[in-house]
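Worked example 3. Consider a protein that binds 3UK.
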Amino acid sequence: MAQSAHLDTFTRDNLPAREMWPEFINLDPLGYPDRLNCASELLDRNVAEGRGDKPALVSPTTSWTYGQLAEKVNRIANVLVSDFGLKPGNRVLLRFPNTPMMTAVYFAVLKAGGVVVATMPLLRAKEMAVIVDKAELSLAVCDHRLADEMELTRKRTDRLRQIFYSGGEGRDTLEARMETASPEFTACDTAADDVCLLGFTSGTTGEPKATMHFHRDMLAICDCYSREVLRPVESDVFIGSPPLAFTFGLGGLVLFPFRAGATAILLEKAGPDELLAAIPQMRPTVIFTAPTAYRAILAKRGDTDLSSLRKCVSAGEALPKATWDDWHAATGIKILDGIGATELLHIFIAAREDEVRPGATGKPVPGYEAKVIGPDGKDVPDGTPGRLAVRGPTGCRYLADPRQADYVVDGWNVTGDTYIRDADGYFWYQARSDDMIVSSGYNIAGPEVEGTLLAHPAVAECGVVGAPDPDRGRIVKAYIVLKPDATGDAELAKALQDYVKAELAPYKYPRAIEFVTELPRTETGKLQRFALRDIAATDSGDAGSARAAS
Ligand code: 3UK
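Given these inputs, the predicted complex is written out as structure tokens:
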């Protein structure tokens, strides 16, 4: 590794042992120098190349050019170093909704050689305290509107010595300090392999894991997925829903637009309603969001003008073919599905518009390799389901966590997803490996049944899990949110079951169906299958559900 610029060596000290790392491949063609500060490359380069007057970040209330943003970043970096005593390698907790100011603080930390720990705004003090202790955080910068939970966090841990607020009244705000700070700041001379980001997994169970990412990783995802698959141009305007604390949002709403010298719209709330309001008004060309949002936008769109959009990216969970088809029919746009993971920072299997196969995730992103392996770790033949393994210029390094050995096996990242590769090299998602339903000895992938149900005109959303059953071990159970005009009665349940039986091998049909008003989802848009499984396990069975005689 190159000589670190970190005076605080916590992150390097807590990297997994070298032999536990994934093998990094295809780094040489990316041509990164040993010394690299990603904030300079992503931001200052835009100013140096003459885009200083171009809008970088737009929100409903402000618009900052690259020049203005670069100056704010320098001022904040000076505040961090002079007022808050930030040393290279110190971790800084960020707690903000998606705003231009969050982005400015983010880049200031990177530029000063600090390590960003961004947290989702919905996290509670209990969850934040775990992060604070794990990342050994002593400094936090927080939007004043999110102060309550931040102060509760301070009470739960004795590590957090300094919390600074952005916005609000008074003289001790970040903005007030920025006014007197110098607009010049020389970037910390970080090594390309100095850690700059601790990304906490949106894990559903167990203690959260901190994934570690280098300065070079932040560029690698731009120069692989974004440059080769998404292919944005300078005139593009990005918009989307994921929080910047989720690396899907970080890449899609900040790193990719900046690397392309384009513009990003940041919305503090970016549900389907807000996106539908913003799109005709702000005319974005590229959108990043989750499958469920595409469905909700279609359901609510009315005659909203979506014609500004030219590229639509979906990730976070599987994109059912029915959703792809409906979006294509309504807008003429082919959604670009892509599987990414916090461990690999961003998307590693996807397809360009001209190579999309609806229903498949795609092929390995240029720079990455992927394979499907069996329980023995050996490749399975094409057409056979198995565990997905990938490697590329980015990969998993958990901060001091024994689970490193589960994710990285023989130098490959094993994501925990079951996939099938076809003879043409396309990868077809089946399920999370631990989400496969075993019913009467059959392996059934919940997402496949969900995808089929979603093609039925009465179904708005659904989640399919295994429910305990004395005879079959597990039965397939579907939790269904109906479209407003449908009635959830036994007749419809039967019709849905017949529909699945006609579309898929009959043993996959949902023997139990329950109509619900909403499904449990994470802040990153993922269905919480474990929550549904818990409900299914504690349900007495037929209560509230429609069940066909079988
Ligand atoms: C699942 C998908 C099917 C899959 C992420 C894009 O989701 C992201 O990161 P997470 O760490 O979760 C990773 C897991 O989510 N998944 C993601 N995308 C897809 N399953 N089709 C997809 N298109 O189980 C994966 O292992 O929260 C996504 C970019 C950055 C990210 N961090």
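Take a moment to read the result before moving on. Residues 201-202, 247-248, 315-319, 337-342, 346-347, 361, 415-417, 429, 432, 524 surround 3UK (CB under 6 Å). DSSP finds 16 helices and 26 strands in the chain.
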